Amino acid sequence: MSKEDLTKLQTQAYEEVLEFFSHDRIEVEKWCQTRVRGLGYITPEQAMQTEEGIARLRTLIGRLRHGIPT
Questions:
Q1: Domain coordinates of the chain in residue numbers?
Q2: Cα 63 to Cα 70: distance, rounded to the nearest angstrom
Q3: What is the pTM assigned to this prediction?
């Protein structure tokens, strides 16, 4: 995967997180630096460094958005 493709995925994931948090950038930044159980206790910021991590993050946000337990 090219760096450009990874950047596009990161942008899409960040937009989904931002939408989930009702565009509250302060809350998003705080959450992105917090270890999250649904991501295997890594931070969303760490997850966004790989294609696999981004997929896990987007799945988690989808589950949270629909009230599905993680």
A1: 3-61
A2: 7
A3: 0.91
3-state secondary structure of 36: strand
33-67 as b/e, with b when 16 or more CB fall inside 10 Å? eeebebbeeebbebbbeeeebbebbbebbeeeeee
Position 22: which residue type? S
pLDDT in tens, the chain (70 residues): 899 999 999 999 999 999 999 999 999 999 999 999 999 999 999 999 999 999 999 999 999 999 998 7
Task: Please name the residues in contact with 28: beta carbons below 8 A apart, sequence gap of 6 or more.
Answer: 14, 17, 18, 21
Q: In this structure, what is the dihedral angle of CA atoms 20, 24, 28, 30, given to the nearest 10 degrees?
A: -140
**Which stretches does DSSP call E strand in 3-60?**
none
Instruction: Tell me the β-bridge partners of 42.
Output: 36
